[in-house]
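ok so dumb question maybe but i'm new to this and my supervisor (M.) told me to 'just get the structure for Energy transducer TonB' and walked off. so i did the thing. is this what she meant?? sequence i used:
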Amino acid sequence: MINYLIVPIFMMMKRFVLTLTCIMADIINIYGQPVFRGGDNALKAFISGKIVYPEYSRQNCISGTIQVRFRLDKTGRVTDAVIHQGLGIDLDDEALRVVKLTSGKWDVPAGYNTATRIVLPVSFTADQTRCNNITTSESDRAIQTYKNRQNLEDVVIHYYKSKQQGKADTASEATIVNLKKQLGFDDELITELLAQADSKFKQEDRVGACEDWMFIRNIGSTRADKFIDRYCK
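this is what came out, is it supposed to look like this??
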């Protein structure tokens, strides 16, 4: 009799524990936070594997951590992604790009408030075999130079966009060519940008690749035109 009574009681307790565990799991699921599929290590591996080090920062040995702010919808898609804290250079653009690539790879619990803003840091570390002698002040100067050259880049891009539309003042082209030399917009840079775009395209990031190809076109080169015509319509 004792054994008979103990078994049902034990089974009832076991069922209670299992039920309680399931309830607690549901509570955690409802009130928990989104999780990248595979966990934090998978997220770090995904981002580090997708980063295509931007050309200016690569050449100038610029490192840094960029914070990207975004929201997730109920299906785990990234929305409203913006730079929360950055350096104001090309690393910002790349951090934003790779965070957008995580879209659809998040598990979002039921009841999650999709208005919640998430801030994700994306770290960039320059090649130490080449950059270990670069000082902080040199890196800071390179960052400032990048910001200062934006106005000159805009002049070049505006000219070639106007030229594509048949509206450019071609008498000023010699000045534009000199600006391109000053900015380092040469065949070597274009080759590197093509390789950068190719890396993004292989990641199935057609938008990122097209941005690079369009930049090449908009600084007066035709070397990306075949890719634009095929993939960027």
